[in-house]
Amino acid sequence: MRSIIYIILYFISATCSVFSQSIDTQKLDAYFETLSKHNKFMGSVAISKNNQILYEKAVGFRNIEDSIPALTTTVYSIGSVSKTFTAVLIFKAIEQNKIHLTTTVDVFFPSLPQAKNITIENLLNHSSGIANFTDTIDYLTWYTQKKSEKEMLEIITSGGSDFKPGTKNAYSNSNYVLLSYILEHIFGKKYAEILDITIVQPLQLKNTYFGTSAIRKKQEALSYTYTDQWNPEPDTHATVPMGAGAIKSTATDLVIFTNALFNEKLIHKESLKQMMTMTNGYGSGLFDYSFQNHNGIGHDGAIDGYKSIITYFDKEGLTYAVASNAMNYKLDMISATISKALFDIAYEIPSFVTVVLTPEQLDVFTGTYSAEGLPFKITIARSEQSLTAQATGQAVLPLETKSKNIFTFDKAGIELIFMSEENSMLLKQGGNQFQLQKE
Fold it and tell me: In this protein, which residues make up the domain named Beta-lactamase-related (predicted)?
């Protein structure tokens, strides 16, 4: 589930490569073990080729306090990857003529703003205009509490509408919460049961389910965020995100599900084509995750301290999934490394070597930096033996010292290179760079 997070810039670069007939699993092992060793990542990864699992890896702990290591069978909250499951369930309902893409939501929620003009399709591809309830100011005061459909509808309704339905697309968790309730209405069953009957049982997914199961909880990973150490995160109550973000699974189960979806084992070819149709970059429970010249599609997720992603490369028959309970690194960077391993593109295992500078050396870089055309300024300040960066109106980011003039914030893939002679700073992220001048 996408929550309020800090990102300065996001970019994707494109070049050319070919698929590797074999994966250097030892190097991938070393990569993930290095991330884990340096408190950057805990979780599981799975990769398949032509529906056959080629690689599974788990690093870190599912429970740090009790020193219980993660296994490939460890279960994680998958956040917004749940939306792909929910979209499949909706298309199954459409195939059974229970609803249609053109069905308007006033049939289910007559009090919802613009309900008569919002269709099932608008909910699926985030073109409904319904405001995202996770962006509300008070969200963090109640997200751990159990909510009924009535309560969630009141919250979503009170958020109002951001634009006329169908005029543009904007990501909103509200859309998929409403789709969850629509499923419950038309099938006369709870979302968890619909998921189990329609997807989990047919695919024999051993570790995939909605919410928290008391029986299975012993294999679930707790989630953490990192400051100077891993700190436990509270759990969002499953009744809040519903099918927008409350499913739990393993990386291996996610690969099996993804393969079944794109091999038309869950929904018909026409339904799959509709799911994959992009409108302003939005599919129905899917996004374009192409890597360089390889066509990829999938979805990512983030809820509490959990992060996840599924990606399918149709032409090559390749699928990978990541499920994490602790990430102090940018998920895009991990995804890019996995893709490079798949397509035999060179990548480096980061060293995470840090350097200690004196206060006098650090003070040289402090100040405010700006550049013409950038909508923000970045203030650099000293914090004990390192620096912090703060963009206009954003949170303070602790930086790691990589050399006498290079600092990073790995969670967002940011690298700052200071050039004292020029009184400037180079901001690098995602293959792009911007030079900012010290004011």
Answer: 30-329
